[in-house]
Design brief:
The structure is a single chain. By secondary structure, this protein is α/β, with parallel strands linked by helices. It has twelve helices and twelve strands. The longest helix has 26 residues. It is globular and about 50 Å long. The termini are far apart. 37% of the residues are buried. The protein binds NADPH dihydro-nicotinamide-adenine-dinucleotide phosphate.
C-alpha cells in the first residue's frame, strides 16, 4: 500500500460530488492500492450539508480513505494535492447573460487557480467539470503559472460516454472511442444519415432530457465521466485506444492554439498526447468550426474580465 495522496473535490456538497466521492474513495480512480486523503471544498453556507457528506463517507468504511477534510478555505483544500476535481461553479440561471455567468466563474476559478499555484503539488492533475468547463480550465491555468498548462483539462468525457451508449443501442457492443463496434467500423454498422442527425441531436440534448425526466441535472453520469477522465489520466489508456479530453490546443486539427478544446488523446505515464491523423469529414469540420468560434468568443470575454 503506497503513501496516501491528497485529492480535492470542489462543490463537494453538490449533486455530482455526491456520486463522484463514492467512486474516488472506492479506489476506482487512483487504483485499489492507493490510500487517499480527500479534501472537500464548498462555500460557507454549504458547510452543514458537507458535514453530512463527511459522515456518510466515514460510514462507508472505505479501506483506502485515510482522512476526509471538509473546508471552505481554498488554502486548506488545495494543500499538497496531487489531483483536483473542480466541480463547483456558478450555475446558469434562467435569463442570465453569458457575460454575468462568465464573470461569476472568473472570480471562482481565479481564487482556485491562485490556490493551486500557491499550495498544490506542481504536477497536480486538474479536471474542470463546472461549466463552462473549457473556459474555466483556461482561467484556472492563467492564475496558476507555476503549474504546466497541460495539467489543466476540461471534462468532455460525458459526451463520449453518451455517444457510446447511443451506438450501443443499435450495435449492442460499442467502442465508439476507437470508432468500432464488434470489431467493425461504426460507419459500416450504422447509417450515415443517423450519425449526422438523430445521433448528434440525441447526444446534444441528453442533458436536457435527463433534467426533464428527473427534474434535476444529470449527476451520476457526470460523476462517472469525471472519474473515467481522471482514471485514464492517472492509469493510462490501453494500447491502441483513445479518449476525449478537453486540453489546451497545440494547433492540431487546425484548432487555434491556446483554447481548451476536446481532442482524442492517448495517455501514458500520466501524460496525454493528442492522437493525430484521424479523418474528419465535412460534417465534422463544420461542427468543429462552430464550437471553435464559440470558445474563442468565450475566451475573449473571460480574458476581458480577467484583465479588467
Ligand atoms: P452539480 O454538482 O449538479 O453541478 C456542478 C457543476 O457541474 C455545474 O457547473 C454544472 O454545470 C457542471 N456540469 C458539468 N456537466 C454536467 C452535467 N452533465 N450535468 C450537470 N452538471 C454538469 O451542482 P450542484 O448545484 O448540486 O452543486 C454545486 C456545488 O458547488 C454547490 O454545493 C455549491 O455550493 C458549490 N460551489 C462551490 C464553489 C467552491 O467550492 N468555491 C463555488 C461555486 C459553487 P451547469 O451549471 O451547466 O449545469
Amino acid at each position: 500500500m503506497s503513501e496516501p495522496i491528497r485529492v480535492v473535490v470542489t462543490g463537494a456538497a453538490g449533486q455530482i460530488a455526491y456520486s463522484l466521492l463514492y467512486m474516488i474513495a472506492n479506489g476506482e480512480v487512483f487504483g485499489k492500492d492507493q490510500k487517499l486523503v480527500l479534501t472537500l471544498l464548498d462555500i460557507p453556507p454549504m458547510m452543514g450539508v458537507l458535514e453530512g457528506v463527511l459522515m456518510e463517507l466515514y460510514d462507508c468504511a472505505f479501506p483506502l480513505l485515510s482522512q476526509v477534510i471538509p473546508t471552505a478555505d481554498p488554502a486548506v483544500a488545495f494543500k499538497d494535492v496531487s489531483a483536483a476535481f473542480l466541480v463547483g461553479a456558478m450555475p446558469r440561471r434562467e435569463g442570465m447573460e453569458r457575460k454575468d455567468l462568465l464573470s461569476a466563474n472568473v472570480k471562482i476559478f481565479k481564487v482556485q487557480g491562485e490556490a493551486l499555484n500557491a499550495h498544490a503539488k506542481k504536477d497536480v492533475k486538474v479536471l474542470v467539470v463546472g461549466n463552462p468547463a473549457n473556459t474555466n480550465a483556461l482561467i484556472c491555468s492563467h492564475y496558476a503559472p507555476s503549474i504546466p498548462r497541460e495539467n489543466f483539462t476540461a471534462m468532455t468525457r460525458l459526451d463520449q460516454n453518451r455517444a457510446r451508449a447511443q451506438i450501443a443501442l443499435p450495435t449492442q457492443f460499442p467502442d465508439v472511442a476507437s470508432g468500432t463496434a464488434n470489431g467493425k467500423p461504426v460507419t459500416d454498422l450504422v447509417e450515415a444519415s443517423y450519425l449526422q442527425s438523430d445521433f448528434v441531436t440525441t447526444v446534444q440534448k441528453r442533458g436536457a432530457s435527463v433534467i426533464a425526466a428527473r427534474k434535476m441535472s444529470s449527476a451520476m453520469s457526470a460523476a462517472k465521466a469525471a472519474a473515467d477522465h481522471v482514471r485514464d489520466w492517472w492509469q493510462g489508456t490501453a494500447a491502441g485506444t483513445f479518449v476525449s479530453m478537453g486540453v489546451v490546443s497545440d494547433g492540431s486539427y487546425n484548432i487555434p492554439k491556446d483554447i481548451v478544446f476536446s481532442f482524442p488523446v492517448e495517455i501514458k505515464d500520466k501524460k496525454w498526447k493528442i492522437v493525430q491523423g484521424l479523418k474528419l469529414d465535412d460534417f465534422a469540420r463544420s461542427k468543429l468550426e462552430i464550437t471553435t468560434k464559440e470558445l474563442l468568443e468565450e475566451k475573449d470575454e473571460a480574458m476581458q474580465v480577467c484583465n479588467a
